[in-house]
Design a protein that fits this description.
Blueprint: E1 2-6, H1 13-30, E2 52-57, E3 63-71, H2 77-81, E4 97-105, H3 108-111, H4 119-136, E5 141-147, H5 149-156, E6 161-163, E7 168-170, E8 173-181, E9 196-197
Parallel strand pairs: 4-5
Antiparallel strand pairs: 1-2, 2-3, 3-4, 4-9, 5-8, 6-8, 7-8
Length: 198
């Protein structure tokens, strides 16, 4: 398994196409999110030249995980689309805080199931790579919008996690925004469940 971090210019057109198709499979087909898509590809206005992607591939080269990292001093998903998840907390606007979005870790199509038995360890490995990647850019915290069940998983990891505001019901699902303190020494344990983060 490999996890690669980079911008659009770091990846071939084929890898970017496969990432957009994987995101459609996970977020639209599996999770049922109502996202504007084209040709079974999921991309939005936050997929820019300065966006940093994490792409996980299995030994066959198939994408089995992805996420997107955006500095909050430029436009980002949470502040633009889901500001209600921040409650009275001002939307972060700092190169110290990076948004983690479109996070998914599971080889769903190959297995044909809703859960990859190895997805939990992959998700935590990807979170660890995300923190190291952000730290190299000067980031000290992540912020993310997630389904409420993710909060329990994050708290069990030993990371420092803070809610930005109480959860909000959106399209039948309770979502919340949280800050995660970047810890480059954090070592993920291998006994967690896979899931997806907005």
């Amino acid at each position: 398994m490999e996890i690669i971090a980079g911008t659009i210019d770091s990846f071939t057109a084929d890898v970017l196409f496969d990432m957009a198709r994987y995101r459609h499979e996970v977020f639209v087909e599996k999770l049922g999110w109502k996202l504007a898509t084209r040709g079974r590809l999921e991309l939005d206005e936050f997929d820019r030249k300065d966006t940093i992607y994490l792409i996980a591939r299995n030994p066959d080269g198939e994408i089995v995980g992805t996420s997107r990292l955006l500095p909050t001093h430029r436009p980002y998903l949470l502040a633009s689309v889901f500001p209600q998840l921040l409650g009275n907390t001002p939307a972060p606007c700092s190169p110290d805080v990076w948004e983690l979005s479109r996070f998914a870790a599971a080889d769903w199509m190959r297995l044909g199931t809703d859960e990859d038995p190895h997805g939990g360890s992959l998700a935590l490995d990807m979170l660890s790579v995300a923190m190291r990647t952000v730290a190299k850019q000067g980031g000290r915290r992540l912020i993310s919008a997630s389904p409420l069940g993710i909060e329990r998983i994050l708290r069990r990891t030993g990371l420092t996690v803070h809610r930005a505001a109480p959860p909000v019901l959106i399209e039948g699902q309770h979502l919340f925004a949280c800050f995660i303190d970047v810890d480059t020494n954090w070592c993920p344990r291998q006994d967690r469940h896979a899931d997806a983060v907005g």
